[in-house]
Amino acid sequence: MINNNQKKYINLSCGKIAYLEGGKKNNPPVLLVHGIPTSGWLWREVIRYLEVDYNCYAPDLMGLGDTFVDINKNLFNMQAQAEMLVEFMQKQGHKSFHLICHDQGGAAGQIIASQMPDIVKTLVLTDCVCYDNWPVPTISRWQTFVKFPLIPEYIIQTGIVKFLETSTPFSAFRKGVYNPEKLSNETIMEYLRPLHETSMSRKLFLKFLLAGNPRYTLEAISGLKKFTKPTLVIWSGDDYYISPSWGKRLSEDIPGVKIFELIPFSGHFWQEEKSADFSSKIGFFLETHTK
Q1: In the chain, what are the helix, strand and coil shares in percent, each to the nearest 5?
Q2: Interacting residues of 140 by C-beta distance below 8 A, sequence separation 6+
Q3: Under DSSP, is residue 153 helix (H, G, I), strand (E, B) or coil?
Q4: What tens-digit pLDDT sequence spans the chain (291 residues)?
Q5: What residue ranges do the domains of the chain occupy?
Q6: What architecture is domain 4-134+214-288?
Q7: What is the dihedral sign for C-alpha 178, 218, 97, 77?
Q8: Closest by CA position to 14, among listed 214, 194, 204
Q9: Which end of the chain is flanked by fewer CB atoms within 10 Å, N or C?
Q10: 37-62 burial by CB neighbour count: b if 16+ within 10 A, else e?
Q11: pTM of the predicted model, to two decimals?
Q12: CA dist., res. 76 & res. 85, Å (int)
């Protein structure tokens, strides 16, 4: 299994981007984009499945994971994230690539597909924000909460977040899986780790959090309705945060969609409990449309 210690780093115009990579350099490139509050580590098992045939990249978005950028010189909205991702792949030597997006990373993916369709070989959207369905209520409450600067610092430093997420029924992470036993405390703690390392990591996270706005996916709709590249929309049947109905709507609006897949008995963070089921379908889709 890919270890988080295996993260690499690359310097872009915005700062130092952390990422996981798997597969041979001469394989077709695949960009995997995570959302909030995860990191590129979310894709570790998917990379393990795909890296035999593809060169996989899973960067940490600005404000999340181990990526470090200047908080005063960068925007953290999804337009800026999309531009960072394109620069990231160009710096890796790829002018075009397969694109797989999850959660809020789906907003960045939709922007890229809408504004720069020529660089996208295929598009996979899975359990992602779209239209005006975000920030989801949990994130929206956090956006309101963190506007009181001292409170987030207090609850993080005192370990309240760790306790809530690992030891109570109120865990936002465990609501994101169909079977809570599939999400270990160790995995949750890895996603929370950056928040507990430095004050700057927390400030970067809050900047990302407060930048969440549905205007970016709403603006992408017109472009998506013209996107004809092969597209797979694949969704968890039991997503607590983003209903499969949103995936169905995307599949009806994007002309490039070949199929809408629904995987039962899986939650929002399917990468933690159904990685094999999803990866096999995503892998078959990529194989079918890889030239």
Answers
A1: 45, 20, 35
A2: none
A3: helix
A4: 455 568 999 999 999 999 999 999 999 999 999 999 999 999 999 999 999 999 999 999 999 999 999 999 999 999 999 999 999 999 999 999 999 999 999 999 999 999 999 999 999 999 999 999 999 988 998 888 777 766 667 677 778 889 989 999 999 999 999 999 999 999 999 999 998 888 899 999 999 999 999 999 999 999 999 999 999 999 999 999 999 999 999 999 999 998 999 999 999 999 999 999 999 999 999 999 987
A5: 4-134+214-288
A6: 3-Layer(aba) Sandwich (3.40)
A7: negative
A8: 204
A9: C
A10: bbbbbbbbbbbbbbbebbbbbbbbbb
A11: 0.95
A12: 12
Residue 33 to residue 41: CA distance in whole angstroms: 10
- Residue pair 251/130 in contact (Cβ under 8 Å)? The answer is no
Q: Distance between CA 18 and CA 61 in Å, rounded?
A: 8
- The total number of residues shown for the chain amounts to 291
Q: Sign of torsion, CA 218 203 22 1?
A: negative
- CB-neighbour burial class of residue 214 (10 A; exposed 0-12, middle 13-18, buried 19+): middle
